[in-house]
Amino acid sequence: RDAGCTPRKCGRGVTDAVITRDEAERIRRIAERGLSLGGSDGGASILDLHSGALSLGKHFVNLYRYFGDKIRDIFTEEDFALYRDVRQRIQQRIAQAFGISPSLLYLTKPTFFSRINNTEAKTTHDEYWHPHIDKVS
Predict the structure, then answer these.
(1) In angstroms, how far is CA 76 from the centroid of its own chain?
(2) What global pTM score does this model have?
(3) Are 15 and 32 in contact (CB under 8 A)?
(4) Which of 46, 49, 45 is nearest to 30 (CA)?
(5) Helices of type H across 10-69
(6) Does residue 101 contact residue 90 with C-beta atoms inside 8 Å?
């Protein structure tokens, strides 16, 4: 077992210093553009740029297949580059905070944006108000 992959401490970390205000605003605009393409019938909508999962009605679609080449009109290469860069910075900050080598730390998937409103839940995926564990992922 590699000694560099086991954290020496346990806890939570909170920081405002991973991305700039401008980057946060740009990330939010990316999420808003993507979420505007779909939306759950039940109030909890998800956009996962990594896998392409997008809430649409009571189901999920792969936005890259669903929209095809039109996706280039929605997201730019700069958008994807910023998303990748921010994910990498988060990974590095977590590794630093917990004394783990960044090369031995893997972020879970999916990493997604979510939008929740007060629409009544239509499926169990829309219910965020009770204790649950996401075992499948």
Answers:
(1) 18
(2) 0.79
(3) no
(4) 49
(5) 21-35, 63-67
(6) no
Residues in the chain: 137
Token code pair at residue 105: 């730390």
Residue indicated by tokens 């649950």: 132
Q: What is the DSSP letter of 36?
A: T
Tens digit of pLDDT for each residue in 65-106?
Answer: 999 999 999 999 999 999 999 999 999 998 888 888 888 887
SS3 content of the chain, % helix, strand, coil (to 5): 40, 15, 45
Tokens of 95: 């590794």
Spatial contact of 9 and 100, defined as CB atoms under 8 Å apart: no
Which residues have CB under 8 Å from 61's CB, separation 6+?
38, 53, 54
44-47 vs 39-40, strand pairing mode? unpaired
